[in-house]
Predict the structure.
Amino acid sequence: MSRILPWNWPAPVPALEKNSSEVLYFDYAATTPVDERVIARMVECLGRGATFGNPASTSHAFGHRAKEQVEKARQQVAELVGAATDRIVWTSGATESNNLALKGVACTQAGHAGHIVSSQLEHKAVLDTLKQLEEQGFQVTYLEPDKNGAITADAVLGALREDSFLVSLMLVNNELGTVTDVASIGRLVREHGALFHVDAAQATGKVDIDLKTLEVDLMSFSAHKTYGPKGIGALYAGPRTEGKLRAQIHGGGHEQGLRSGTLATHQIVGMGEAFAIARELAETERAHLSALRERLLKALAGLPITINGSRTTHVPNTLSLTPYYDFSIGNELALSSTSACNSASNEPSHVLMALRLKPSEALRTIRLSLGRYSTEREVDRAAELIRSALMIPIP
Ligand SMILES: *Cc1c(COP(=O)(O)O)cnc(C)c1O
């Protein structure tokens, strides 16, 4: 099907110019707006004159057309990450993908026991799932990061035990933007004979992923961190998971028996289009984000702040800052004071605590995350607001 909207770059600046009191969005790591081109494709899957059929209806053209679109999207997702198309399983998001990967592998272990290696930096969708598995009798080692926020291959090697059957680590950390060396870690996990799961929700479009060469067995994806819709994701399940991964949602045997439920054609088509755009724009987008991040760092130079995480191995869009003292920045900037998932609880972020920040430091840390529609003007304004907020220490 042809694209409805042109592939224009840079993307049109939103209406912000007109109204300077509008809130500036610096929270792309929490979620992204859906790209207009994605919306156009999704709408094509909804109404009477559209591809609304059930992809599982094999007896008529409505079903066939929907299935065709679903399979095209599967290919688009697979192409962004270098996977074989038939290894991509649709889920409702990275949370479900993580649940399916961890619980799905754990429940096939003989005697329902064994050891899993993960880290203190993981997303709650991994940590809370592992907690469940611990309650069922599995043992989990949560690796501590080094001072740059990295989980190293050496740390993983040191934690592997004879009964370790699974290692789960994120590719890009959602709070710090740090990137894990999954190539080296994958090699040693495979040598050990365990399976390797990687949560790549924050990574798609931002770092190159090639599952043809990476020794990764399971990888979780989400559409809404990459300009697709919320409520759709995917799990890559490689050949070594055959017979070692069991469905967690039953009813109809969709997705090769790994995840039942009527496929959400519009969501799936949206995710496919979003990932195709991410692939097409990869270089342009990374250059755009790197330039903005450099500009922001330059504008913040000399301020009483610490930058958390590695300065060298990071994605270009995320910046975690800890000011030396409490400050108030007002509400002109939409940013994250801690991971969106922890925001409800107002507890210091577990990621920053793992970096050994004091609770008070963790609580005043802010995460600025840039995205496709971020502009120089927005970055300059953000720096200005942070600068003036830090000039007036709160006693
Ligand atoms: C957002 C996120 C998730 C959860 O993804 P959903 O699609 O919102 O369920 C999991 N892991 C990481 C690292 C994330 O950033």
